[in-house]
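hiii, so i know i said id send this last week but things got crazy w the move. better late than never?? heres the sequnce for the chain we talked about at the cafe, plus the structure i predicted for it. fair warning i was half asleep when i ran it
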Amino acid sequence: MAAANADRSKAEAMLAQRNQELAQLKEQVKERANSQAVTAKQPTAAKEDARVAIIGYSCILPGGENVTETWDMIRAGIDNLRDLPADRVNLDDFYSGSVDKNPVDKIYCKRGGFIPPFEFNPREFNFNMLQMEDTDANQTLSLLKVKEAMVDAGMNPSGDVKKNCGCILGIGGGQKASNQFFSRTNYATVIKVLRNMGMPEEDVAKAVEKYKAHYPEWRLDSFPGFLGNVTAGRCTNVFNLDGMNCVVDAACASSLVSIKMAMEELMTGDVRSMVAGACCTDCSIGMYMAFSKTPVFSKAQSVTAYDKGAGGMLIGEGCVMYILKRLAHAIEDGDKIHAVIRSCASSSDGKAPGIYAPTIAGQEIAIRRAYAAAGVCPSTVTMVEGHGTGTPVGDAIELTALKNVVGEGPARESEWGQQRERVAVGSVKSNIGHLKSVAGCAGMMKVILALKHKTLPASINVKEPPKMKDGATIQETAIFVNTKMRPWFTPPGMPRRAGVSSFGFGGANYHCVMEEYEAEHTTPYRVNAMPSPILMSAPSASALAAACDAALAELKPKVEAATALGALRNGGYEGVSPFAAEHRAVADAFAAFTGANALRAGVPASHARVGFVVADGAAAVDVLTAVANQLRAK
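okay and structure toks below
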């Protein structure tokens, strides 16, 4: 009996202990659940702000020697494509004579977009004369435009000042200087050919020396002078930048790769700012021969991107540079902000029909990734600067991919997504040609200036847009090809937002999402060319008439010479590049006239005077002629 009671007591004690342990376990579970509930209610850490500000920019493009001239050209809808200058390609040697002929070792295209001559001071950039002779124009032009962008950003470009800044540039293909150096080494082949022809050795030697004289001699600075991958290093060396430097080559998408990589480098915190952009000055026979044999050159005089009758592309030259900084840092530093890049994303086509053939699916991936990274719905975009080269298949594929993202699926279900013809699409290539590695940044420049001026620029040379690859007409979609300059309106509370696409051979797809920066402006920020106020004065009416005649003697002959090439009014040129010598002469004479006759104080009260406002040299000639006639009549 005693043993039974002892066992019962022992069992009750064990049960009590187990009940106590179970109660403790329940309390622990309850505490953990409460803890998890509290944690769930806590706000998650905000996603790091990856927006990047463009605080400085510069460019030289066909039809625009700087940003202001570029906007004037885009705004006026000027076609800047023209015949190859003799210093690019000797047409007598290589042109087939017709766009319908494409024989071996000949080109069938002689049109393109070409930049004007530019001034480069070697001493300013620490170049000696031998280095100047051996260095490709890509490097010297990049230095020039990086400096201009730094000055625009308020940075000191002096090499005496160390700067926490890096440099990534899109530099594609070969450099034209390399053609010259490598051509010189072909003297060995020339020797063999001449010997096989039976030429005497003495004459062979003379002929070879004459051959070599056509090309530069190999020297110490030859190698870095023609290497494209030295270009970014030149910039970091001259301007004393301590951040990363490299060049990237994704064919025609190269410049947007530089933007993407620069944004990512800013996010590491290693640098405060980045130079990003691209340069291409190669419109040599090598380029024209390669594209002639592809063949993708247009047989027409111009590029008709996004037009039903598009027949191909035309290439060009240019350079565009940006200074980038994280938006938060730009605001903190009080920088001028031209525009904001929310994201830049990429994709590859993967398996495609061919190395040249783009795919709808591949481009869609890049565009969708860009808007996902930007944290905005594609339906909020109201302008897209496309890749639009003017090739029929490529343009139709791009438009189809674009409408699938910005106007279908989730985008169509949003508040604004159901609206048809909501997104203005265009391509600056119809104005300036395809600038190869610079193409993406050239399109970005158009978007920045459109955002600043709250204006949708026209895409020129379009009569009727093509059908989509799925058979849909563009009128049935959320996109439209914008063929006229118009104000850029958005829904209330919605910032102006745009996309920029750039695609390269091999299926490289890149898309940037950009938007306006709407802080209060304390300084002028638009770049429209403004009419000039003029005040002329002289002691008497007859003396004032003589002053008008003197001004006319300077301006009128130059205006007549320019007008003979193409009509010049309101800063616009019809069918002729504004870099023609005749048009430059008008611009220089007009600048001298406005400078000498600007509004001023201190004109004697007894003087005869006349005041007026004119936009260009041609308008000045008209007004001066009328004023002089009226004064003489008195």
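btw The first strand starts at residue 52 and ends at 60. thought thatd interest u
miss u guys!!
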